[in-house]
Amino acid sequence: MSRVSTAGRSVGVLPLIAGVASAIALTGAAFYTVEAASCGDPGQYIRHDDHLELVGGCVDGSSLPHSPEKTGNEAVPQNYRP
């Protein structure tokens, strides 16, 4: 008859418990960060004829960098998705 040692089983349990505890802590930190952001109005982008406008939101438009004026022959920016 062979005996199975319980020490072999308990060696793998400690890393599992540490991993689950870390996941729970990081999830709690993420929820706290989102709740602490406290922006009630997420805002939206509205497309006008030749430009985009951010309406609402918690971002102050005067603190954003301004893009150069278009001359009409420039390509559409690659990061814009309509």
Give a verbal description of the structure:
Residues 59-82 are annotated as: Disordered. The chain crosses the membrane at residues 12-32. Keywords: Membrane, Transmembrane, Transmembrane helix. The chain has a two-stranded antiparallel ribbon with strand order 1-2. 39% of the residues lie in helices and 10% in strands. It has 82 residues and is an alpha+beta fold. It has one helix spanning 6-37; strands at 44-47, 52-55. It has a domain at 10-59. It has one helix and two strands.
The termini sit apart by: 71 Å
Largest beta sheet, briefly? 2 strands, antiparallel
Number of strands: 2
What is the helix content?
Answer: 25-40%
Order of helical and strand elements? HEE
> Which overall shape is indicated by the principal axes computed on the Cα atoms?
elongated
Widest sheet: strand order? 1-2
Residue stretches low in confidence (pLDDT < 50, at least 5 long) are none
Sheet/helix structural class = alpha+beta
User: What Rg, in angstroms, do the CA atoms define?
Assistant: 26 Å
Let me know the average pLDDT. Answer: 76
Strand content: 5-15%
Assembly annotation: single chain
**Continuous helix count:** 1
Keywords: Membrane, Transmembrane, Transmembrane helix
Region (Disordered): 59-82
Transmembrane segments: 12-32
Record the SSE blueprint:
Blueprint: H1 6-37, E1 44-47, E2 52-55
Antiparallel strand pairs: 1-2
